[in-house]
Design brief:
Helix content is 22%, strand content 33%. By secondary structure, the protein is of the alpha+beta class. It folds into 3 domains: 74-161, Nuclear Transport Factor 2, Chain: A; 166-272 and 406-440, Nuclear Transport Factor 2, Chain: A, CATH 3.10.450; 284-396, Distorted Sandwich (Glucose Permease (Domain IIA)). Strands 11, 14, 15, 16, 17, 18, 19, 20, 21 and 22 form a 10-stranded antiparallel beta sheet that branches. A hairpin with a 2-residue loop joins strand 7 (217-227) and strand 8. It holds the Pfam family NMB0315_dom_I. Its cofactor is Zn(2+). Keywords: Hydrolase, Metal-binding, Metalloprotease, Protease, Zinc.
């Protein structure tokens, strides 16, 4: 059709008078020239031949009015905030119902539920436009059930339902460091508790105060607990990756046959040390290992451990996994706990103010478990912890001894490790579009 139209235009001048023929030819030439110029102007590499201008047009939005004339109730789904009371919840949900408030404050089960309100849990309500409460459902702290009050023609009545426990959803996030770790995690909606746990997990290999660089990246797989569709809090970190200054660090959570969960590298190396250097988080050494003038007996004796000064009541942690071989009182040691560990190692914790509740001989403890509290029982002039590491019952300097590494996974556990962690590593790979190779 286009070719036919061009032929007609080409033959047209032959049928016109000479004057008009000249004008038509000039017109056709001009149109063709403009066509070439237009084609040249639309070259993708050339700037537009006219100035660009941003035009903002304000559009009037029709006001949306909610009419309460029909009497339909409002549905609210809120979460309990820190420091909330039932009165503050009523105000936030626009409930103006003194009868319902009095019922809750005077009902025996209602008073128990109100005392156990926990932030983050879901509160649902059905409220009339005039503020009258039709239904209110509150979480029950114990058992994950719900306590509900309802209004009917006979007044207000209460019922309790054993709803399902909090549901768990596995979520994934990734981000890039621009200024700080928490700035990057906030930007991708990662909860602060997960960011803190990530810093703790990688803290043995990355100093998050000095080692971070712009462009470092992270990926994390973690659990979120939901209450009837509303997120309550973050759960465990299941797997995480951190790329710091080009070096990639990956960890996964693995549950062993004994039920204990630990973080491992992707190749099955435990991140935990076999022994912590100190059983106290915040302390200072007041007396080292070796010969010293005894502060009470005033003679020179061998000090078979290290003294850590700390306030009375400071929690004391087991420095390694082990079994309680003694808990009680021993002469100058006062209250003491002795733990037996693998490979002929044992540790002693003396001068305790008290023991952890229920601690008994034969109990198994994990590294980091609280076993007692700092005191000054026995031969002590002030509150402190006397700590010993023994090999074949011979004391060694806890600050200088070469401590064993964490026990590696056996061949049998390696297969279980692969089965548990490969799906988690695949999630990390999905975030990064990388390939996962299973550990053999």
């Amino acid at each position: 059709m286009q070719a036919r139209r061009n032929k007609i235009l080409a033959d047209l001048p032959a049928h016109l008078p000479s004057a008009r023929r000249t004008w038509i030819l000039a017109s056709l030439f001009g149109v063709s020239l403009f066509g070439v110029m237009a084609a040249t102007a639309t070259s993708p590499d050339a700037p537009p031949p006219f100035p660009l201008e941003t035009v903002v047009e304000r559009l009037d939005v029709a006001a949306q009015q909610t009419s309460a004339a029909d009497g339909l109730p409002f549905v609210y789904d809120e979460r309990v905030q820190p420091g909330d009371t039932i009165q503050s919840i009523f105000r936030r949900l626009n409930i103006a119902d003194q009868e319902a408030l009095s019922f809750l404050l005077n009902d025996a089960q209602g008073k128990t539920v109100l005392r156990q309100l926990r932030s983050g849990r879901s509160v649902t309500a059905l409220v009339r436009p005039d503020g009258q409460l039709l239904t209110l459902s509150l979480p029950v702290a114990q058992g994950g059930g719900r306590f509900t009050i309802e209004r009917d023609e006979n007044g207000i009545r209460a019922r309790e339902s054993s709803a399902a426990a909090l549901s768990t959803v596995v979520e994934m996030r990734s981000g890039v460091i621009q200024h700080s770790l928490f700035g990057a995690t906030d930007a991708v909606g990662l909860p602060d508790s997960v960011a803190t746990k990530m810093a703790e997990i990688f803290g043995t290999e990355i100093n998050f105060h000095t080692d971070l660089r712009r462009g470092d990246s992270f990926s994390v797989v973690y659990e979120t607990l939901y209450d009837e569709g509303s997120p309550v809090r973050a759960g465990k970190v299941l797997a995480a990756e951190f790329v710091n200054q080009g070096k990639r660090h990956v960890v996964v959570l693995f549950r062993g046959e004994d039920g204990r969960e630990q973080y491992y590298t992707a190749d099955g190396r435990s991140l935990r040390q076999a022994f912590l250097r100190s059983p106290l988080e915040f302390s200072r050494v007041t007396s080292g290992f070796g010969r010293r003038l005894h502060p009470i007996h005033r003679n020179w004796r061998t000090h078979a451990g290290v003294d850590f000064a700390a306030p009375t009541g400071t929690p004391i942690k087991a420095t390694s996994d082990g079994t309680v071989s003694f808990v009680g009182t021993q002469r100058g040691y006062g209250n003491i706990v002795i733990l037996q560990h693998r490979d002929r190692y044992s540790t002693a914790y003396a001068h305790m103010n008290g023991f952890a509740r229920g601690l008994r001989k034969g109990d198994r403890v994990s590294q980091g478990d609280v076993i007692g509290y700092v005191g000054m029982t026995g031969w002590a002039t002030g509150p402190h912890l006397h700590y010993e590491i023994r090999i074949n019952n011979v004391a060694h300097d806890p600050m200088r001894i070469a401590l064993p590494t964490a026990q590696p996974l056996g061949k049998g556990e390696l297969a279980r490790f692969n089965a548990q962690t490969t799906p988690l590593l695949e999630r990390i790979a999905l975030l990064n579009r990388t390939t996962v190779a299973a550990l053999r």
